[in-house]
Design goal:
Layout lengths: L8 H8 L4 E5 L4 H10 L8 E6 L11 H12 L3 E6 L21 H14 L12 E5 L1 H4 L2 H4 L29 H10 L13 H8 L4 H5 L2 H8 L6 H21 L4 E5 L3 H13 L6 E5 L25 H9 L6 H8 L4 H12 L5 H17 L1 H16 L8 E3 L7 H7 L6 H9 L3 E3 L4 E2 L12 E4 L3 E5 L1
Parallel strand pairs: 2-3, 2-5, 3-4, 5-6, 7-11
Antiparallel strand pairs: 1-6, 8-9, 8-10, 10-11
Length: about 475
């Protein structure tokens, strides 16, 4: 690759919103100019950037991290990132991309997922500087005092004890009284305790006056539901409006909400934020929608439910091996979306592949290393390369392979599904059909999905999993 010249702030910002960007609504370059001015020290108005995430699943994968890396670049330029955890909206479930209503999650599951999110984003974002990062949760403004407090959250009949969840706070009145609940409510907010904002039912109804039924029903997913005679519930249609109110609350708490970002699947929801803010008489946020990363299958977008993902917390060796299993056709795309590789180098990589001058295997090794470096560091990436070389290039079987015990007459596929090595029988069938199951004793591909293996046989499943039948 050629020598990469140091980029100016203007060039960094330009690449930020040109690379992997599907839509950028920024009238008169309002946000871009504000970010550049602050980064150059020409303004003291720090840009505020919002990313919302409902904790409906426990893990973040590197497809989500496409957006997180955009945020990291903005942090490096001085922007303040508001990572908004939708613990309230997770109770509804974003209908985006869903052909039927989402099941309701339990509060403790949402809480657990939320903590996982907050731990995993530290692999990309700087979270220790309050000037450039803060997280919040939208239950702060959507749940009222009465909603939040239950008998389990206070110590019934013991007014001389501290309220559960608060440190060094004593109360001298009944724990279930209004004043006791008010203290608990105030001290469990992520907001400024002296400047608490809340969405009342009156404001919610006022917001609805500025949104028409036709605006909501035009969404493709809603039209598809109706066309297929599937149920469409009112709370699902309210979801984009609630997300828009999140932006309005951030504006009130922090003084501005300059930009909301997300994947292309979130564009409708994010644009609703502009509508809600305009109707409330405040400066509407700009909106950026970034490309969705294809998964390891090379077809569908990365998703846990499709088992085509790499988690940001995957072990370095697993992460490296999964990248090496990527179809050659996605190498350039993954360099663009999943790494910090400068755009000019990505362009050269794509050209080399198109002209057959680039070596896909060597490029995937570089891609795998760069991805592991992002989430685990240089040393872990070097060790992952060494492990991959020993295991796959030299034909060695790893010492930590999984030993499985089959029931009498059980097929290999049924055993792997039972032990959750493979998520389903249909996935096992696809692996066999794709030639992704290898008998390590003779190096031959397994062609029989109903194979009943002999004791002592060892198999490679996909690119990274090894099992031994005992």
């Amino acid at each position: 690759m050629g020598i990469i010249m140091k980029r100016t702030i203007e060039q960094k910002v330009e690449e930020l919103f040109s690379r992997a960007t599907e839509a950028f609504i920024d009238p008169d370059d309002y946000f871009k100019n504000k970010l550049i001015a602050f980064a150059k020290g020409e303004s003291t108005e720090r840009p505020i950037v919002k990313l919302g995430a409902d904790p409906t699943r426990p893990d973040i994968h590197i497809g989500h991290a496409v957006v997180l890396r955009k945020l990291r670049t903005m942090q490096d330029l001085g922007a303040k990132i508001i990572f908004l955890v939708g613990d309230f909206t997770a109770l509804i479930g974003d209908p985006t991309g869903k052909s039927k209503v989402r099941p309701e999650l339990a509060a403790d599951e949402i809480e657990t997922n939320m903590q996982t999110y907050l731990e995993q984003i530290t692999k990309v974002l700087k979270v220790d500087d309050p000037e450039t990062f803060m997280w919040s949760k939208n239950s702060d403004w959507f749940l009222s005092l009465a909603d939040l407090v239950s008998p389990e959250q206070v110590i019934e009949g013991k007014p001389d004890k501290a309220i559960k969840g608060l440190k060094n706070i004593k109360i001298n009145f009944p724990a279930n009284s209004y004043l006791a609940k008010a203290i608990l409510y105030q001290n469990t907010r992520r907001q400024d305790k002296n400047n608490i904002h809340q969405v009342t039912i009156r404001e919610f109804l006022q917001t609805l006056r500025g949104v028409t039924h036709s605006q909501l029903i035009q969404r493709d997913m809603f039209q598809d539901r109706l066309a297929n005679n599937q149920e469409l519930y009112i709370h699902e249609m309210m979801y984009p409006i609630l997300q828009g109110l999140d932006s309005l609350m951030i504006y009130r708490i922090f003084g501005s909400c300059d930009l909301e970002i997300g994947g292309t699947d979130q564009l409708f929801n994010n644009l609703m934020g502009r509508t809600v803010m305009k109707n409330a008489g405040v400066a509407p946020q700009s909106v950026a929608a970034f490309s969705l990363l294809e998964g390891l299958d090379g077809v569908e977008k990365m998703s846990k439910s499709l088992d085509n993902y790499i988690g940001v917390s995957d072990e370095p060796n697993d992460m490296y091996g999964k990248v090496m299993s990527l179809p050659d056709s996605l190498i350039g795309r993954w360099f663009e979306l999943a790494t910090f590789t400068p755009e000019v180098e990505v362009s050269e990589i794509k050209k080399s592949l198109e002209s057959d001058e680039g070596n896909p295997y060597e490029l995937k090794k570089r891609l795998a290393r760069e991805i592991v470096v992002i989430y685990h560091g240089e040393e872990a990436a070097d060790l992952a390369l060494e492990s991959f070389t020993n295991t796959f290039s030299k034909g060695e079987i790893p010492e930590d392979l999984l030993e499985i015990k089959l029931n009498k007459g059980e097929t290999l596929g049924d055993s792997l599904v039972r032990l959750e090595v493979v998520p389903s029988k249909s996935q096992w069938r696809r692996l066999v059909e794709q030639g992704s199951v290898t008998d390590m004793n003779d190096g031959q591909k397994v062609a029989d999905e109903k194979l009943v293996p002999e004791s002592g046989a060892t198999y490679r499943i996909g690119k990274k999993r090894f099992v031994k039948v005992s």
